[in-house]
Fold:
Amino acid sequence: MTASSRYQNFWLVTVLLTACAMTTGVNMFKIPMILNDLAADYGMELTGASWLMAVFTFTGIFCAWPAGSLAQKMNPLRFMLTGVYFVAAGSLLGAFAPGAAALIATRALEGIGFCLVTVSGPLVLTRVIAPQNRGRAMGLWGTWLCLGQVITFALTPTIYQTGGRPLVWLLYAALAALLATVCLVTLRLPAAETLAAAAPPSPPAEPSPPRLTPLAGVLKSPCFWRLGCSYLIYNILITAVLTFGPTYLEGIGISTAQAAALTSLPMLLALVSSPLFGWLMDRLQTKKPLLCFALLGLLGATLFFLPAALPRGAGILLIGLACGAPCIVLNLIPDTILNPAGYGNAVGLLMVLQNIGMFLGSLSLSYLLLPAGGNWTLAGLMLLPLGFLAFLGVLLLPLPKAGTQARPISERSFNQ
Structure:
């Protein structure tokens, strides 16, 4: 393999990986559209039923960081596909769960698979996509969760009415296993040794203090922690809308089908905003201003829970803008860590923060409604300060000055 041929076809790799990861998003979001039905079936309050979503990401809080480190040292493609098979297995077992506790346990198994997918996907893309295309690749990759949400919100109510919860779980398990198998027989990750040999030699380094270890280069970077905390808040707000949006809309008299469509609209818009931000990063060679612009859309999380149609419509548009943020965050990581060889550790730790945000977001409004006296609008207003903090954290991000940024991620860095 030569230096010019070591990268794989941009479209083939990106489309297949995104479609495969999308199946984990389908399984994650199969709960919200039937949350009320599941609560009634199992005799649970909303706070208890919301754990069916929360436990999915709760497991990632503990396994994302070690998974990121292992995926970098081993084969990230196999790691990712193993995660998708975990999701399929959890969904298969969940179809036969006899009670709420067993169902929650199978959701935890799905959550482990989700964790492996989120940390491995960016590593695969960075290994096999040429640098000049990585912004676009991350932009397309950033749509996988949105695609999963749109598909499951559209299909789950009909499937549930046809065959109940077991049919929903079985069909989504089969979908995940099918796409994972397609990727397994189609994609190949070049050997690490081959990539290292093909990589061009690094330019002579200027005299500098001893470089931090990959892990220390992440943990000792205030820049990374500020970015990660903003990303945590981002996930709280987005997950709050996706989890409780259908329940809120049905509560104000909107039909189940319309509630599904309205909650899915931001994700449909993300199918435009995420690739667009990826293209702009490659084109303009800038990241932080684009991320600040995307995070302005977090205002939509509050507007969504206002009863009037016009503010809610504006909220949907803004959330669609904000959903383009993840691809920028993943591309911004190399500029925030003190050793580029720590990219895998950084992605793993970022996914820990993402899962903490999703976990808190999937519980947030069910608990905020208590002090809000059951008023959804007041509970939504409580989210507004969080969105401002996320924006401010990125706006004040002290990125290194030109000429002192970390070297771009290279294949050689992956093997250090």
